[in-house]
Amino acid sequence: MSPVEERIAAIWREILGPDLAPEAAIGVEDDFFALGGTSLQAMALVQRLREEFGIPLGLSAVVADATLGGVGAAVTSGGGAVRS
Amino acid sequence: MADLPEYAAEPPRRACAFDEYRLARGSVLDLLRPALRDALAAARTPPAAVDTVLFATESLPGGDASQTAVAALLDELGMRNAYPLALGLADCSTATAALAVAAALVTSGAARTVAVASGDLVRTAEPGSRVLLGGAAVGSDGAAAAVVSGRRYGWEVVGGARQVCYDLVGPGPAAERLQAQLMTYQELFRGLWSATGLTPGDVSAVLSSNLAADVLQAFLGEAGFAPRQLYQDNVGRIAHCLGSDPLINLTDRTKAGTTRSAYPVVALLGSSAAHLAAVLLRAVEE
């Protein structure tokens, strides 16, 4: 898992909160909606990703491929990187 | 918001911007009466000149009681020549769609002066809870009205568009719903630009339904609007007055001091889960 994906997985945990078991591992194939994410939580996710990575990510980027790998690719292709 | 049971344990996300909602003690007619009176005064239109009234509401009393109540209301306002019609079924987009219908009636010659009256009580139109659209809106009681005629005054109706997605009526998987909502918004605006020849960049303000601020920014961002183009001041102040938000926002933005010359083209946008309606208005030079 890349540093960007690791950071995104942590944000998923923040947003999905009690809907996600603390010990559950999130892999690159896991889908945000399959993990219980709602449409409102998807919007919150996009907002958090914009803040975290400083990129103008669109909602459609998350809807098109909601796997961790897919969202990570959208963030990376938009110029997002983990700040050191 | 603190007295809403849904938010007692978990307040709405800060990005929603919800703060207060409005609760009417009286009937929907008590909301519609001043809205119509103020609209007629603002349009400098004698009440007797109105030949048609489009009621965009789902809160009128049922059966004959609605006829009696509407007759008394129009009589009291001096609108004795107004033929009343009710529009509904399109949730919070009905009133915005009604504006385009009113303009079409006038353009076709089927009517000369049309009043559009929008108003609802949440307890009647959305019984059960004020937290709507899965938390994307908090319902308020409110009303608004407009007068549409062939006289060039106030705002000119440039064009309108409507869109419905029946897959969004009722529940469904979140991912599919979100995809369908995005497409519905994009189709709506494609229709609006096609009808008017304008683009998102030509619109100085989108006066929309008062949905959660972050939700609307997400949908309208995909349709090509920047956050600065969205008027969201009323989300916190009055929450979601069902179909009346766009007209209330138009009035309040003007009252707040933003002159029409500063934003010559505005878009009214009425949104519900499955129905969307938009109308472009251009300021008429005074």
Automatic annotation (TrEMBL), chain A:
Assigned GO CC terms: cytoplasm
Origin: domain of life: Bacteria
InterPro entries (alphabetical): ACP-like_sf (IPR036736), PP-bd_ACP (IPR009081)
GO molecular function, one term: phosphopantetheine binding
GO BP: amino acid activation for nonribosomal peptide biosynthetic process; secondary metabolite biosynthetic process
SUPFAM superfamilies for the chain: ACP-like
Alphabetical list of PANTHER family matching this protein: FATTY ACID SYNTHASE, NONRIBOSOMAL PEPTIDE SYNTHETASE
Protein name: Non-ribosomal peptide synthetase
TrEMBL record, chain B:
GO MF annotations, alphabetized: acyltransferase activity, transferring groups other than amino-acyl groups
InterPro entries per UniProt: Thiolase-like
SUPFAM superfamilies from the UniProt entry: Thiolase-like
Protein's name according to its UniProt entry: Uncharacterized protein
Organism: Streptomyces noursei
Taxonomic lineage from the root: Bacteria, Bacillati, Actinomycetota, Actinomycetes, Kitasatosporales
